[in-house]
Amino acid sequence: MGGSRKNGPSLGLAGFPTSRHFHATRLIRGTVKPIHEYVRRSARITVVLCVAAGSLQCFNFQTTPRFDTFIAPVDSGNPRAMRLVLVPTSVPADIENPEPIVMLFDSLVEQSLLKHGFDVVPASEYRKIWSRLNEEAAGFFDPFTGERDEPEYAAGVSQLIKEVHERFQPDGFLYPELWVVEAPISANHAAWDGTSQRVWPAPRGLSAVFALTFAVVVEDSAGTELFVNGRGLEVMEEFDLDMNEMIMIPRERLFRQSEVYLETVTRVLAPLLAMSPKKN
Predict the structure, then answer these.
(1) Is this structure's pTM higher than 0.85?
(2) pLDDT value at position 21?
(3) What CA–CA distance (Å, rounded) separates 211 from 192?
(4) Among residues 147, 149, 217, 211, which one has the least CA distance to residue 182?
(5) Which of 262, 238, 265 is nearest to 249 (CA)?
(6) Is the pLDDT reported for residue 51 higher than 50?
(7) pLDDT in tens, 152-191
(8) Cα–Cα distance measured from residue 239 to residue 265, given in angstroms and rounded to the nearest whole number
(9) d(CA 3, CA 247)
């Protein structure tokens, strides 16, 4: 018996705007893929981010179809420190008690950027502005249908980006995100986005399990994508022998590997950190 399969958790915006890659609808098996399937490019391209600080300076990124070096920095001489606005970490909406997770990854990302000499606008500043706009709009969801008012939401996001840009003049907005993807299984191991994890027991015929990937997307104020990278974090589901089906792993058994998460964040940010004028 292979056991029955259910659809995975619904994903939402976790209260904050996300990158265009972040899922916003209920997952259906067979429709989600590892990060490199989302952001794969057909050819090598170069993205140049220019900023003014007395004189014009440019940050150059080269993107490649290879996942492990999806975006690699090009030596740009001795640039000034990039100013990045840290957006609060987005997590799947169905994960219980998300705030400690958000705070953990916000902290890990901010510490890594500061350590390497980046000028970081903390997520708390972004959060304050978005919360105020949300309150002024009396929320962006229809009180009767529960669905998001897309025109109101789009206007709110535009105003948010405008205010943050005018106040901080950032070079980019950094979106840390936890994506749910389907991790292929072979020989009782799930392997996805540069990592692997044992899955046992694995019912006959099981080809993939839902898993988490930590992703970072950097966009400029116009929404142009400047950087994308990610790495697998941990498997989200397991086979229940009594129920004879795959079930989601309880929240209290997830997000308990702080040292692993620090390494994951560092590896995901590595191509970006390598651009820093501060060499550690």
Answers:
(1) no
(2) 65
(3) 8
(4) 211
(5) 238
(6) no
(7) 888 998 999 999 999 999 999 999 999 988 899 998 899 9
(8) 28
(9) 11
Average pLDDT of the residues of the chain: 76
Q: What crossing angle do the helices spanning 123-136 and 150-168 adopt, rounded to 10°? A: 140
DSSP for 58-78, please give it.
Answer: EEEEEE-S-STTSEEEE--SS
- Are 97 and 136 contacting, i.e. CB atoms less than 8 angstroms apart? no
Q: How far is 193 from 273, CA to CA, in rounded Å?
A: 20
Q: Quick one: which of 1, 6, 34 has its CA closest to 185?
A: 34
Of 1 and 265, the one with more pLDDT: 265
Residue whose pair of structure tokens reads 């950094």 in the numeric block? 174
Euclidean distance between CA atoms 65 and 39, whole angstroms: 8
Q: What is the per-residue pLDDT across 9-40, written as a single tens digit (0 to 9) for each?
A: 333 444 677 776 665 444 445 555 555 554 44
Q: Which two tokens stand for residue 236?
A: 């989200």
Separation of alpha carbons 22 and 15, rounded Å:
13
Number of residues assigned to the chain: 280
Q: Which two tokens stand for residue 208?
A: 């993939």
Burial (CB count <10 Å: 0-12, 13-18, 19+), residue 209: buried
Residue corresponding to tokens 């959060």: 127
Q: Is 57 helix (H, G, I), strand (E, B) or coil?
A: strand
63-98 burial, b if ≥16 CB within 10 A, otherwise e? beeebeebbbbeeeeebebbbbbbbbbbbbbbbeeb
Residue 78's contacts (CB-CB under 8 Å, 6 or more residues apart) are 277
